[in-house]
């Protein structure tokens, strides 16, 4: 029972393939790569969460990032002279605020209205088709009821006529 199962590490001498200068350089490069990957993972893991974006809303912005109400202003830049845009009264406080071109907002509103109008038009067509089908069914029912009443009336007249003759 007293067997020795201990394990000894191999020698790091040149005879056994240990510690030559290229191996040390490889280890340093691998270590640098591992550190770079750790930095990247750390940086990507902590993504910044921004508040809901007013620009993402279609059409005219209703609120700014700061909670304020957007206002219309006119651009005085060389690239966009006299172009209207939405901004905020607090734009100079250094925080992030809404900026949306007025003409883009108008186009988004118009596209949304077009889509809504097309949807309403399709729904109206469906309702018209359903109404026409119901009207056709109602006309059939009225026609059948008229035939039944005519048969009953004729039968009643024959019955009354037979009673008069017998009486």
Could you name the key traits of this structure?
mainly alpha; 3-stranded antiparallel sheet; 54% helix; 2 helices
Poorly predicted residue ranges? none
C-alpha geometry:
elongated
- Radius of gyration, whole Å: 43 Å
Distance between the termini: 133 Å
Please indicate the percent range of residues in DSSP E strands (runs of 2 or more): 5-15%
- Total beta strand runs: 3
Describe the structure.
There is one protein chain. The protein is mainly α. It has a domain at 55-133. The chain has helices at 21-45, 102-166, and strands spanning 71-76, 81-87, 100-101. The protein has a three-stranded antiparallel sheet. The longest helix is centred in the C-terminal third of the chain and has 65 residues, at 102-166. The termini are far apart. Residues 1-29 are annotated as: Disordered. It comes from Brassica campestris (Field mustard).
Give the arrangement of secondary structure elements.
Layout: H1 21-45, E1 71-76, E2 81-87, E3 100-101, H2 102-166
Antiparallel strand pairs: 1-2, 2-3
In short:
The protein is mainly α and 167 residues long.
């Amino acid at each position: 029972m007293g067997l020795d199962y201990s394990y000894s590490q191999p020698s790091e001498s040149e005879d056994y393939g240990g510690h030559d200068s290229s191996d040390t350089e490889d280890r340093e490069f691998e270590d640098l790569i591992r550190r770079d990957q750790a930095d990247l993972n750390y940086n990507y893991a902590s993504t910044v969460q921004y508040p809901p974006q007013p620009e993402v809303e279609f059409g005219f912005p209703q609120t700014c990032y700061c909670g304020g109400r957007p206002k219309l202003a006119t651009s005085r830049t060389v690239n966009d002279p006299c172009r209207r845009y939405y901004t905020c009264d607090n734009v100079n406080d250094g925080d992030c605020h809404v900026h949306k071109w007025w003409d883009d907002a108008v186009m988004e509103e118009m596209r949304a209205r077009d889509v809504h109008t097309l949807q309403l038009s399709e729904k109206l067509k469906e309702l018209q088709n359903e109404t026409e089908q119901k009207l056709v069914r109602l006309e059939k029912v009225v026609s059948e009821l008229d035939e039944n009443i005519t048969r009953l009336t004729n039968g009643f007249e024959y019955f009354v006529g037979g009673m008069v003759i017998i009486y």
